[in-house]
Amino acid sequence: MRISVVGTGYVGLVTGTCLAEVGHTVTCVDLDEKKVKMLKESRSPIYEPGLEPLIQLNLEHERLFFTTNLEESLKGADVAFVAVGTPEGEDGSADLSYVRAVAKSIGDKCSGNLLVIVKSTVPVGTCDVVDNIIQDTLKARGAKYRVTVGSNPEFLKEGAAVNDFLHPDRIVAGVTNEQDAELLRELYTVFVIDDPSKLFIVDRRSSELIKYGSNAMLATRISFMNELARLCEKVGADIDNVRRGMGSDARIGRKFLWAGPGYGGSCFPKDVAALVKTGDQFGVSLEILKSVTTANESQKKHAASKVVRHFHGNLKGKTIAIWGLAFKPGTDDVREAPAITIIETLLDAGATVIGHDPKGQDNFSREIGSKKGLTYVDNAYDAVKNADALVLVTEWPEYKRPNFEKIGMLMRGKIVFDLRNQWSFKNLKALGFHYECIGRPDEIMAQNLKL
Ligand SMILES: NC(=O)c1ccc[n+]([C@@H]2O[C@H](COP(=O)([O-])OP(=O)(O)OC[C@H]3O[C@@H](n4cnc5c(N)ncnc54)[C@H](O)[C@@H]3O)[C@@H](O)[C@H]2O)c1
Q1: Structural domains in the chain, sorted by start
Q2: Using a 6 Å CB cutoff, which residues line ligand 1?
Q3: If you take atom 7 of ligand 1, which residue's CA is the nearest one?
Q4: Which of 186, 190, 234, 330 is deepest in the core (most CB within 10 A)?
Q5: Which of 130, 95, 270, 121 shows the shortest CA–CA distance to 208?
């Protein structure tokens, strides 16, 4: 199949590359000339494990092409994916301006029959809007092509995106006719060869809502556990024991039950906000989801307040090392990362902050802008030199078992805040550290050691 992918970000680039990997001829198009230039040189503009070698291989085999010219990418294409951003608008709803612009351009530039697949996360009814824009544009230029629109939300996880795309839990597609359903089966069967029932072909609106429902459910689990963790801190219980006990109930399951400094990223915050907005627009107030957002904002502040409280509200003259700036390990994406709120809170309280992240440093400094008192280092141990406290914000593998003896010698104060519950209370206490984490008060951890 010949495929055009419009938008070469985290989703579009992985989609295009993986479709080329299974043998399709794919042209990825992006407005960003710098990105396209890098990609033509086999360099990935984003960090995603395993992606760059696949780009290189498929460029070499002439199955993958990059361009800034939409018309060129649509020539002879059977399918065009729309994978542009749908950021949060000012009122919380999804900003569909990029999606609308692409729909108009496809209507203007396509030169044959085409199935347009909306992969961007879009509110219910957006495929109808895209369809109308394309049909109106085709009509205005007197073109008689059969252009149809399908929904195919993406569920990949940054940090594991290539594997998720090649070996998905499920693929969801929404169509309006059997011909499009057949084309999608042809496109995707190869990825679900182990179990074809993983491919769900449904109506467009259900498909659009499956994506929001999934992200909103995951965000809800995180906020729910974060609130339970805060209760643990007050009543003297251990959230990790609570998590394990709850998760072993098959109806609940073990995943997405980790307490932490709140969720971030380019999806959960904006998708929860957009779903709330959709509910309001249709007269259905989504009360649970409204609280999920409030709880998440509060959790980021709660995490930062642990540090501020330890120093009695005044961090003047204190140096705080931050390990982890990306919103999660395995990615350089820092959009809505908890580290932003945490660092801003510490700077406001007068601290000097030294940040480290294996991949997210450049994006983070661009996102947060230049701030007095905030600098970055390339080596995790350099961040802790003469620091009064170390805060673990993102659980990158390289932070999981660091050399605490060395850290203790490098630091000015032996104080650590483990906002991902990764480190051992017992080991750190034995080395003379003050240790705080999320939802596990000291007295209960000490008591649990004896059990
Ligand atoms: N990032 C994720 O983990 C993830 C996962 C699932 C779904 N999604 C959804 O997928 C969509 C894309 O997300 P992303 O993270 O890949 O976004 P992104 O911001 O990384 O990439 C979007 C790209 O689209 C390009 N673009 C914008 N307008 C264009 C146009 N008219 N023509 C060509 N290119 C254009 C931009 O230059 C950019 O490179 C969003 O709706 C998002 O919610 C993202």
Answers
A1: 2-202 (3.40.50.720), 217-449 (3.40.50.720)
A2: 6-12, 29-32, 35, 83-86, 98, 101-102, 120-121, 154, 156, 158, 266-267
A3: 154
A4: 330
A5: 121
**Structure token pair of residue 385:** 């030199």
Compute, in angstroms, the gap from residue 7 CA to the centroid of ligand 1. 6
User: Which whole-number Å values give the CA distances from 174 to 86, 102, 181, in the listed order?
Assistant: 19, 19, 8
Q: How far is the CA of 412 from the centre of ligand 1 (A)?
A: 43
Please state, in angstroms and rounded to a whole number, the distance separating the CA atoms of residues 184 and 56.
26
232 is catalytic: no
**Minimum CA distance residue for ligand 1 atom 27:** 84
Instruction: Enter the tokens of residue 410.
Output: 């490098």
Model-level pTM? 0.95
Tell me the three-class secondary structure of the chain, residue by residue: CEEEEECCCHHHHHHHHHHHHCCCEEEEECCCHHHHHHHHCCCCCCCCCCHHHHHHHHHHCCCEEEECCHHHHHCCCCEEEECCCCCECCCCCECCHHHHHHHHHHHHHCCCCEEEEECCCCCCCHHHHHHHHHHHHHHHCCCCCCEEEEECCCCCCCCCHHHHHHCCCCEEEECCCHHHHHHHHHHHHHHHCCCHHHEEEECHHHHHHHHHHHHHHHHHHHHHHHHHHHHHHHHCCCHHHHHHHHHCCCCCCCCCCCCCCCCCCCCHHHHHHHHHHHHHHCCCCCHHHHHHHHHHHHHHHHHHHHHHHHCCCCCCCCEEEEECCCCCCCCCCCCCCHHHHHHHHHHHCCCEEEEECCCCHHHHHHHHCCCCCEEECCCHHHHHCCCCEEEECCCCHHHHCCCHHHHHHHCCCCEEEECCCCCCHHHHHHCCCEEEECCCCHHHHHHHHCC
Q: Which of 4, 6, 8, 11 to mutate to test the pocket of ligand 1 (most atoms within 8 A of CB)?
A: 11
In the predicted structure, residue 62 carries a pLDDT above the cut 90: yes
Nearest CA to ligand 1 atom 25: 7
Question: For 126-169, how does the pLDDT look when each residue is reduced to its tens digit (9 = 90+)?
Answer: 999 999 999 999 999 999 999 999 999 999 999 999 999 999 99
Smallest CA separation from ligand 1 atom 26, residue: 7
Alpha carbon distance 387, 403 (integer Å): 16
Task: State in Å: Cα 8 to ligand 1 middle.
Answer: 7
Please, which pLDDT band fits residue 442 given cuts at 50, 70 and 90? Answer: confident
pLDDT band at 213 (very low <50, low <70, confident <90, very high): very high
Token couple for 225: 């556990």
